[in-house]
């Protein structure tokens, strides 16, 4: 037998007789990996878990100078017109890109953590609903609109569940179209055996005293559960900014979205109830759950408080809790440092506008926003003159108009799978390059510091020798 074959055999036998790590060793390894990936500490005030205290009043009054800006804005508007071409006043902006808004849906992944371990199809759908209702309460005070993403803009982030043994949830979003404005997104967690893909195309309209962002018919979300080969088709409700002309400004979620799983035949009809002018309550919700067209459960409540469900043939007294906002636990969002981001990544792209808004310097924020929009127009004109087509980075459009992530891993999770670094996923060369560059920099720093130490030691030795010689003389 040749030496090469012997070496191979030895390597194979080593793998098979690999010692299984203890729980203590696993926890140590996870802590080490958490530090290695520079995840923020849970005590860091910037990333600390926010307390949920039931219903929240989200109304905003317009101050003096801001009122005149709103009047200038109203001069541009006509009832029924689309808002994608209207310039909004800077004070009304939320200091983050619309691409980052998708992460709100994954701040609370609690119900998804055990989805792959749940055997009953109806229990799985109830957990999907629990997760879905958790994604709406993170709206800012008043009517705050995130930045309109620039064509080709991307945002990447992840949630760290290493300490709980649930791996890492990675997120990537991209602005794949300018007009109409379409944002595509993808999220995955290999350990929890799910991935989410979809796109958001908000059709914005002015309705008099309200501005609407219509999502139900134009946007879609798909949750794929690899462990059970299930696909959940999820619609989104509509957003309304109320009180733009008269009264206090607030956001209302309303509409009749549907969640459907083809493999199990379970369908959920949801109604986000719009508050009436004289009566009714904000954030009210009701709906029905069907199995093969047969009504099984009815549910009702408030998505910023509690939602109960009960069997169709039973009394309302036998209701069970479907969703409780007080039991939600926030995951910590990790975003790479700005200096490690690509020039078209959201936080780096909008950093000057964000700086102005955070410092209450509306003029500086407006100037920075204008400069960014001018650059975008110039780039668009150059592309049209050269007849160059913009190529999307992470998503491709299929024949049905759906935006599909290029690097989806549809294989079922294996227990011996290695935990990928949060930004070292195959198919994402920029993330890997950033990781390599960081390691290179650290190596260079170490070699420089070690060489400095050596040179300083040599100098000290030389001075000691010269002093000794002088003494002897």
UniProtKB/TrEMBL annotation:
Region (Disordered), start-end ranges: 1-48, 418-473
Compositional bias of kind Basic residues: 1-12, 437-449, 464-473
UniProt cross-references to Gene3D superfamilies, sorted A to Z: 1.10.287.2720, 2.40.160.120, 3.30.70.3490
Coiled coil: none
UniProt feature, compositional bias: Basic and acidic residues: 18-35, 450-463
SUPFAM superfamilies from the UniProt entry: Oxysterol-binding protein-like
Top-level taxon in the UniProt lineage: Eukaryota
Family according to the record: Belongs to the OSBP family.
Protein name: Oxysterol-binding protein-related protein
